[in-house]
Automatic annotation (TrEMBL), chain A:
GO terms for cellular component: ATP-binding cassette (ABC) transporter complex. This is ABC transporter permease. Belongs to the binding-protein-dependent transport system permease family. It is found in: Cell membrane. The keyword Membrane applies. PANTHER family: GLYCINE BETAINE/PROLINE BETAINE TRANSPORT SYSTEM PERMEASE PROTEIN PROW, GLYCINE BETAINE_PROLINE BETAINE TRANSPORT SYSTEM PERMEASE PROTEIN PROW. It comes from the Bacteria. Gene3D superfamilies: MetI-like (1.10.3720.10). It comes from Cypionkella aquatica. Residues 135-314, 451-630 form the ABC transmembrane type-1 domain.
Length: 643, 314
C-alpha cells in the first residue's frame, strides 16, 4: 500500500511536468517539440548495411535460396497432388469428391456425424462454387507450411525448455515477432527468398511459429513431477523421457499450439498473396480490385469455412484422449473406418473417372451467390447513405480532426513525460523506464508525426469499439444462449479476411479517416466483446449470491461486484484489441492514410528492408508498451482482488 | 543434421542445373508475373499460352507491381508485359541502372494519366473538361475533410504524381486527398455513381474503368518538356508543374537479361509482341465487364484475334 502511495506521488509529479510542457509549448525550443536532428538516428541505413552484408558478403543468399529450393520441392509435390501442377510425382489432381469424402471421414472418426458433415460440407461447397483450384492452391501451401511450423516450434520449444538461457533470448524475440506488422516481415523475405508460393509459405511459417513455441513450452513446463518420476523408475533414457513421457503428457497444449498454427496460416492467406502466394487470397485481391464484392464475399465465406473445419478438426484431435481398447476379435472390426474410407475413395475416383464433374467443377457450371450479395450491398449502401453522410461530417469535423490536431500538437517531450507518469503510476520506475525507452526509440527513428497519427487512429478506434462493445457484452452475458450467438458472430467477423471490409467502408464513408476507423473498429470490438463476456460469465456465483444477500441492487451488483471481478479478463481483451487495431491500421493504408502504414506500404513496394523494419519496430513498440502496461495493471488488480 | 543435409542436396542440385545452357529453349518454366489489374493478367496469359504452344513450360506468379522489377533483375521472373511510363517508369529505370533487366519491346499504345471525371460530373459542371471551369465548380466537390475546398482524390502517394504541386502552381481551389490503392479510387467512383455525386479523381488509360464509367480527362495546359522543372516554361512564368501530365506515355515490355540465352525462341517472339489501346481495353473488358476468368479471357481473345498473335510467331 505504502509503495503504491509513493508511486502515485511521483506519477503526479511527472504528470504536472507533462502538463507544464504543454502549457508552455509556445516558449519551448523547437528541439523539445519535435525530436531534434541529432536525436534522429539512421536506423534504416544501419539495417540496410547489415542486410547487404548478410546478402552479398556472407553469401547468406545462397543458403536461403537453397533452403527455399527444398520448400519449393515440397510445394510442388502438394501442388501436383491437389491441383495437378505438372511436377513430380505427376499423380494429381486428386478429385474433389475424394478429398471431400476424406474430410468427412476424418471429422466422423474424430468426433462423429456433426463434425463429419461440417468438414465434408466445406469441401463440397468449395467444389460447387467453382473455387476448387484456388482453394487447393492455398491448401497446397498450408499443408507444407503448417507441419514446418509445428516441427520448428517443437524443436525450439524443447531447446528453450532445456536451456533457460536460450529461453531468455527467445522470449523477447517472440514478443517482438508477434507484434511486428505482417508487412514488415515480408520485405526481408522478398530479398532473401524471392516471390511466389515458396515466399508465401516461408512468410506463413515465420508468422505462425511463435504461438507454437509458446504453447509447447507451457505444456512442457506443466508436466507433473510424478510422471517423470514414474518414467525414470521404468528406466527411461533422456530421449525416451522426452518423446514418451513429456511430449505425450503435454499433448493438449501442443495440440492447441498446432491449432493456433493452422489459424495463423489461414490469417496469412490474403496478406501473403502480396508476395506471390497463389490461391484464394490472390483471387480475392483481384476481385476487390474490380469491385466485385459479391464474388469476394464468396471467397471470404470459403476462408471462414476452411478455418472452422480445420479448427474443429484439430480441437477434436486435441481433446480426444488416446483410447486403449481391449483387443478386438478381428482386423476388420478394428479398422472398420479405414475400410469405409478406402471404399468411399475408390467410389470417388471411379465417379471422377466417368464424370468429369466429380473431378473438377468448372467455373461455368459453378453456383454463385454473388448476384444477391451485390444487390444487397447496393441496396444497403443506398439506404444508409444519408446516415453515413451525416456521421462522416460529424466525426470528421467534431471528433477526428480536432483529436488528430491535438495529438500532432503535443510536444514530443510532453508525450514522453506523460508516458513516464502513466508507467510510474502503474508499475513504478521500471515501467516508467520501459515506456520512455519504447517511445524514445520511436522518436529517434524519425517517424514521430506518422507514429502519432497511428497512435491517434488506434486510440479513437479502441475508444469507439469499447463504447459499442462493452454494453453489447453486458447485454449478451446475461443469458448463455445469447452469449453463444454473439461469440459466434465475433469469431466470424474475426476470421473474415480483413481486406473485404475495406471496400464497403470506402463506399460508405469515402477515402478518409472515418473509413479507416470504421474498418478498425470491427476488429477492435471483437476481443473486447469476447473477453468481457468471458470475464462476466466466470464471476464466481458465490460472490453474486453474497452480494444479493447483502441487498445489493442490480446496478450495485454490476458496478461493485461483477465488473471489478471481470476486469482482469476484460483487460486481456483490451490488450488484444489494441494489437488487432495496430495491425488493421497498417492494413488500412490501402484506403489511404498518412500514418506508418502508408510508409510501410511504400517500403514494401520499393523492397526497402531497413525502412520497413524500422517502421515495423515502431508499431511493435506501441504494441509492446500497451502489453506491458496492461499486464502490470491487471496483475495489480488481481492481487488486490486476491484472485 | 537433417536440415544441413537437405540444404546440401538443394545446393548441389542448383549447382548441377546452373551450367545447363542449350541452344533450344530451356525446359525450366518461364515465370510470368501477374499484378492486380486485369489487362496485364489477360495479356500475360495470352503470351503464356503462345509460349506453351511453342513447347515451353510457363508458370504464373503474383507479385507487387513495383517490386517486380527487382525480381526480374534477379531472374526470379522472366518478363513484364506492361511497363507504364507514368506509374512504373521510375522503378523500371532504377532496375535497369542496377543491371539485369532491359526493355524487350514496346506496345503500339499510349498511356495517359491525369485528373479525370465520370460522365455525370459534367452535368453538374458543364464547362468541363477545361481546368478553369473545373476550378470554378470547386464547391461541387467539397467534403467535410477538405472544408471549403473541392476534393481531388489522387492515387497512392508513392505514385509520385505531383498533384499538390499542380494545384499550387495553377492556384486551384482544391485539396488533394491520396487514396491508398487503385481499389479505393474505384470504390469511391462506384459509391458516387449510386448518388450521381460529382467527383474528380486520378485515373489512367487504358484500363477497365473507361468501359464501366464513361468519362473524360481534365484538360490542363498542355505538357511541354521542362514544364515541371523550369518555371519559365508553361502558362505561368514563375511556376513549375503548371501543366498536365504527358498525354502520350509509353507502354513497354521488360525482360530479364538472361531470357535471351535461356529461352531464345520465346524471347524472339516476345520482342515482336505489340498491342494497341483498343486491344488492351478489350482484354480488360472481357474480365471486368463480361466476368470471365483471366485464363478463359485470354483464350477467348486469342480465338477472336488469331491474325494478331500469329504474326508474332517466328
Amino acid at each position: 500500500m505504502e509503495r503504491d502511495a509513493r508511486f502515485a506521488g511521483t506519477a503526479k509529479l511527472l504528470l504536472a511536468l507533462a502538463v507544464g510542457l504543454m502549457v508552455f509549448k509556445a516558449i519551448l525550443p523547437q528541439g523539445m517539440i519535435r525530436p531534434p536532428e541529432w536525436l534522429v538516428l539512421p536506423f534504416a541505413d544501419w539495417i540496410n548495411v547489415v542486410f547487404s552484408f548478410l546478402q552479398n558478403d556472407l553469401g547468406l543468399m545462397a543458403v536461403t535460396r537453397a533452403f527455399s529450393a527444398v520448400v519449393e520441392w515440397l510445394l510442388n509435390v502438394t501442388a501436383n497432388l491437389l491441383y495437378g501442377k505438372s511436377r513430380w510425382p505427376n499423380l494429381g489432381p486428386i478429385p474433389w469428391s475424394v478429398i471431400a469424402v476424406t474430410a468427412f471421414m476424418a471429422g466422423y472418426a474424430l468426433k462423429g456425424w456433426r463434425l463429419g458433415l461440417i468438414s465434408g460440407g466445406t469441401f463440397v461447397w468449395i467444389a460447387l462454387m467453382g473455387q476448387w483450384k484456388w482453394a487447393m492452391e492455398t491448401l497446397s501451401v498450408i499443408v507444407v507450411a503448417a507441419p514446418f511450423s509445428v516441427i520448428l516450434g517443437l524443436v525450439l520449444a524443447v531447446l528453450a525448455w532445456r536451456s533457460p538461457r536460450f529461453e531468455r533470448v527467445l522470449n523477447p524475440i517472440l514478443s517482438i515477432a508477434q507484434s511486428l506488422p505482417h508487412f514488415a516481415y515480408m520485405i526481408p523475405v522478398v530479398v532473401f527468398i524471392g516471390v511466389g508460393p515458396k515466399a508465401g509459405a516461408i512468410v506463413t511459417i515465420i508468422f505462425s511459429v511463435p504461438p507454437m513455441i509458446r504453447m509447447t513450452l507451457l505444456g512442457l513446463k506443466k508436466v507433473p513431477e510424478e510422471v517423470i518420476e514414474a518414467a525414470k523408475m521404468s528406466g527411461a533414457t533422456r530421449w525416451q523421457l522426452l518423446t514418451r513421457a513429456r511430449i505425450p503428457t503435454a499433448r493438449s497444449e501442443i495440440l492447441i499450439g498446432v491449432n493456433q498454427v493452422i489459424m495463423q496460416c489461414l490469417a496469412m492467406v490474403v496478406l501473403a498473396s502480396f508476395i506471390g502466394m497463389p490461391g484464394l487470397g490472390q483471387k480475392l485481391l483481384q476481385l476487390l480490385q474490380s469491385l466485385k464484392i459479391g464474388l469476394s464475399v464468396e471467397i471470404g465465406i470459403t476462408i471462414i469455412l476452411l478455418a472452422v473445419t480445420l479448427d474443429r478438426l484439430t480441437k477434436a484431435w486435441a481433446l480426444r484422449q488416446p483410447m486403449h481398447e481391449a483387443a478386438s476379435p478381428s482386423w476388420i472390426t478394428r479398422n472398420r473406418l479405414l475400410l469405409i474410407w478406402l471404399t468411399l475413395c475408390a467410389i470417388g475416383f471411379g465417379l471422377a473417372h466417368v464424370f468429369p464433374y466429380f473431378l473438377e467443377v468448372e467455373r461455368r457450371q459453378a453456383l454463385s451467390v454473388a448476384g444477391p450479395v451485390d444487390a444487397l450491398m447496393d441496396h444497403l449502401i443506398r439506404l444508409i447513405t444519408p446516415v453515413t453522410l451525416w456521421l462522416r461530417w460529424f466525426l470528421i469535423t467534431w471528433v477526428l480532426i480536432p483529436m488528430r490536431d491535438a495529438y500532432l500538437w503535443l510536444p514530443f517531450t510532453a508525450v514522453l513525460v506523460l508516458l513516464a507518469a502513466l508507467g510510474w503510476a502503474i508499475g513504478g520506475l521500471r515501467s516508467a523506464l520501459i515506456c520512455v525507452a519504447y517511445f524514445g526509440l520511436i522518436a529517434a527513428s524519425g517517424w514521430w508525426d506518422r507514429a502519432m497519427i497511428t497512435v491517434y487512429m488506434v486510440c479513437i478506434s479502441v475508444l469507439i469499439a469499447a463504447i459499442l462493445a462493452i454494453p453489447l457484452a453486458l447485454w449478451g452475458a446475461r443469458n448463455p444462449e445469447r452469449a453463444g450467438r454473439i461469440l459466434l458472430i465475433c469469431d466470424t467477423a474475426q476470421t473474415f479476411p480483413s481486406f473485404i471490409y475495406l471496400i464497403p467502408v470506402i463506399m460508405l464513408f469515402g477515402v478518409n479517416d472515418v473509413a479507416v476507423v470504421a474498418a478498425v473498429v470491427v476488429f477492435a470490438a471483437v476481443p473486447l466483446v469476447r473477453y468481457t463476456i468471458e470475464g462476466l460469465r466466470n464471476v464466481p456465483p458465490e460472490m453474486i449470491e453474497a452480494a444479493n444477500m447483502s441487498g445489493a441492487t442490480q446496478a450495485q451488483l454490476l458496478w461493485h461486484v461483477r465488473l471489478p471481478l471481470a476486469l482482469p479478463t476484460m483487460l486481456v481483451g483490451a490488450n488484444q484489441s489494441v494489437m488487432f487495431s495496430l495491425f488493421m491500421v497498417i492494413i488500412a493504408a490501402f484506403i489511404g492514410t498518412q500514418d506508418l502504414g502508408q510508409e510501410m506500404q511504400r517500403a514494401l513496394s520499393s523492397t526497402d528492408v531497413g525502412k520497413g523494419l524500422v517502421l515495423g519496430f515502431a508499431v511493435a513498440f506501441m504494441g509492446l508498451l500497451t502489453d506491458h502496461l496492461i499486464t502490470r495493471w491487471s496483475e495489480t488488480r488481481k492481487r488486490a482482488l486476491g484472485i | 543434421m537433417k536440415p544441413m543435409k537437405t540444404m546440401l542436396v538443394g545446393a548441389t542440385a542448383l549447382v548441377l542445373l546452373a551450367p545447363a545452357v542449350w541452344a533450344a529453349d530451356s525446359t525450366d518454366p518461364i515465370m510470368i508475373p501477374l499484378h492486380n489489374w486485369s489487362s496485364q493478367i489477360v495479356m500475360s496469359h495470352v503470351v503464356g499460352d503462345i509460349f506453351t504452344s511453342m513447347g515451353n513450360s510457363v508458370e504464373y506468379v503474383t507479385t507487387d507491381s513495383q517490386a517486380v522489377y527487382e525480381s526480374i533483375r534477379l531472374g526470379d521472373a522472366a518478363l513484364e508485359m506492361e511497363v507504364w511510363e507514368g506509374a512504373f517508369g521510375a522503378s523500371f529505370d532504377a532496375a535497369v541502372a542496377k543491371g539485369g533487366i532491359h526493355a524487350a519491346g514496346a506496345h503500339n499504345a499510349i498511356t495517359r494519366e491525369d485528373w479525370w471525371y465520370p460522365a455525370w460530373t459534367k452535368e453538374a459542371c458543364p464547362g468541363l473538361p477545361d481546368w478553369k471551369a473545373l476550378n470554378d465548380c470547386a464547391a461541387l466537390f467539397k467534403t467535410p475533410e477538405t472544408g471549403e475546398k473541392g476534393r481531388f482524390l489522387g492515387g497512392p502517394v508513392d505514385w509520385l504524381k505531383h498533384d499538390q504541386e499542380k494545384v499550387d502552381a495553377l492556384g486551384m481551389n482544391f485539396a488533394v486527398v491520396n487514396a491508398g490503392s487503385a481499389a479505393a479510387i474505384w470504390a469511391e467512383i462506384g459509391a458516387a455513381e449510386k448518388t450521381k455525386t460529382p467527383i474528380v479523381v486520378f485515373n489512367w488509360t487504358p484500363n477497365f474503368a473507361e468501359a464501366v464509367w464513361p468519362g473524360e480527362f481534365v484538360n490542363f495546359p498542355e505538357w511541354v518538356a521542362g514544364c515541371n522543372e523550369d518555371p519559365s516554361v508553361g502558362p505561368f512564368p514563375d511556376k513549375t508543374y503548371d501543366c498536365g501530365n504527358p498525354a502520350n506515355g509509353y507502354l513497354k515490355i521488360a525482360a530479364w537479361d538472361g531470357m535471351k540465352d535461356k529461352w531464345p525462341a520465346a524471347y524472339a517472339t516476345l520482342t515482336k509482341v505489340s498491342l494497341t489501346n483498343p486491344q488492351i481495353a478489350e482484354m480488360a473488358k472481357l474480365v471486368d465487364i463480361d466476368g470471365m476468368e483471366p485464363e478463359d479471357a485470354a483464350k477467348a481473345w486469342m480465338d477472336a484475334n488469331p491474325d494478331v498473335w500469329k504474326a508474332w510467331l517466328n
